Automatic annotation (TrEMBL):
Protein's UniProt name: Malate dehydrogenase
Record has Oxidoreductase as a keyword: yes
Ligand binding (NAD(+)): 8-14, 34, 95, 118-120, 231
GO BP, sorted A to Z: malate metabolic process; tricarboxylic acid cycle
Gene3D superfamilies in alphabetical order: Lactate dehydrogenase/glycoside hydrolase, family 4, C-terminal, NAD(P)-binding Rossmann-like Domain
Residues annotated as domain Lactate/malate dehydrogenase N-terminal: 3-146
Primary enzyme class: oxidoreductase
EC number, as in UniProt: 1.1.1.37
Keywords from the named record: NAD, Oxidoreductase, Tricarboxylic acid cycle
Quaternary structure annotation from Swiss-Prot or TrEMBL: Homodimer.
TM ranges: none
Organism of this sequence: Lentinus tigrinus ALCF2SS1-6
Length: 331
């Protein structure tokens, strides 16, 4: 039995993400929460002939608590997306408050659930969830994840495009590390190497495209929001990995933004490798029934990649501190 909950389920990401979760036969209950429209989304999805029972909840009558009770896995795409011409900072503050309040709901109604944070800025919203859980005495770093899978998915797709064969896209694995913003694709470790003689200029371009892939979508949507469909796909890729790991499948590895205390030994080794004292980082993580089993080292990377990692650290540190301070300053 797996109960999956989507918070922000009526949104641009929330709806296709809920649809994809409904297609996972391992999910037996799908609980949809949003401040609007969940009864309609739930009624629609409930007609799909897969095992999950679908129920929609709204805020009145303890809707959040009811949605979360008994949850095994909670995915959070609630918030406001960035829009061209609108201040990103404004969206960030709104999202910080939304995520803090939802995290409070999870900490009280489903403290043992796996929490998958999609709402941006992930580098701050993940520390926000962690700090709220600490306040409630239920913090387990092994179970809180920032979803960076869209960066991973984009890397696989763009590399396969360069290799001239999109059918490779599902098989190409590129570790993506750093933060979500502050993304560093380790293309030198791609399961499918780039063509020999791939010029540095082309490598710069490809790296930049993976780092700023979101901008392509924001621009093409021309005011209608940011990535939703590809994000829903990526979110469910990651959620399904968690569900498979919980069911006992071994050796599942995925890059994700985690608190490095989730694996003391691996976390400390990574900090040493990075030469910093960051509390959070996005790195390939092995998943198991209790969440994080181990955090992987970066391993052999090129000078170019090492430079990108180094450059990402100060902003990452600031983002993390912002999240921690935000909760500290909240009553
Ligand atoms: P959207 O505006 O279409 O949907 C957001 C949904 O959240 C809406 O249905 C809204 O009613 C709901 N919501 C707002 N306040 C809520 C609350 N307190 N409780 C429950 N639900 C609430 O936005 P979209 O495009 O789905 O994006 C959602 C978030 O995902 C944004 O923060 C965006 O920046 C982020 N995102 C993250 C990515 C990643 O790679 N991690 C990629 C793309 C977007």
């Amino acid at each position: 039995m797996v109960k999956a909950v989507v918070l922000g389920a009526a949104g641009g990401i929330g709806q296709p993400l809920s649809l994809l979760l409904k297609t996972n036969p391992l999910v037996t209950e799908l609980s949809l929460y949003d401040i609007v429209n969940t009864p309609g989304v739930a009624a629609d999805l409930s007609h799909i002939s897969t095992p999950a029972k679908v129920v929609g909840y709204l805020p009145p009558d303890d809707g959040l608590k009811k949605a979360l009770t008994g949850a095994d896995i909670v995915v959070i795409p609630a918030g406001v997306p960035r829009k061209p011409g609108k201040s990103i900072l404004n969206a960030q503050v709104i999202n910080a408050g939304i995520v803090r309040d939802l995290a409070t709901g999870i900490a009280t109604a489903a403290p043992k659930a796996f929490v998958l944070v999609i709402s941006n800025p992930v580098n701050s919203t993940v520390p926000i969830v962690a700090e709220v859980f600490k306040k409630h005495g239920v913090f387990d770093p092994k179970k809180i994840f920032g979803v960076t899978t869209l960066d991973v998915v984009r890397a696989s797709t763009f590399v396969s495009e360069i290799l001239g064969d999109l059918s490779l896209a599902p098989k190409v694995v590129v570790p993506v590390v750093g933060g979500h913003s502050g993304i560093v694709p380790l293309l030198s470790q791609s399961s499918h190497p780039l063509p020999s003689g791939f010029a540095q200029e082309s490598l710069d371009k490809l790296t930049n495209r993976i780092q700023f892939g979101g901008d392509e979508v924001v621009k093409a949507k021309d005011g209608a929001g940011s990535a939703t469909l590809s994000m829903a796909y990526a979110g469910v890729e990651f959620a399904n990995k968690i569900i498979r790991a919980v069911k006992g499948e071994k050796g599942i590895i995925a890059p994700t933004f985690v608190n490095l205390a989730a694996d003391k030994e691996g976390g400390e080794a990574l900090k040493k490798e990075l030469g910093t004292d960051l509390d959070y980082f996005s790195a390939p993580v092995e998943l198991g029934p209790e969440g994080v089993v181990s955090i992987k080292a970066l391993g052999k990377i090129t000078d170019f990649e090492a430079g990108l990692v180094k450059a990402a650290i100060p902003e990452l540190q600031t983002n993390i501190e912002k999240g921690v301070t935000f909760v500290g300053a909240s009553k």
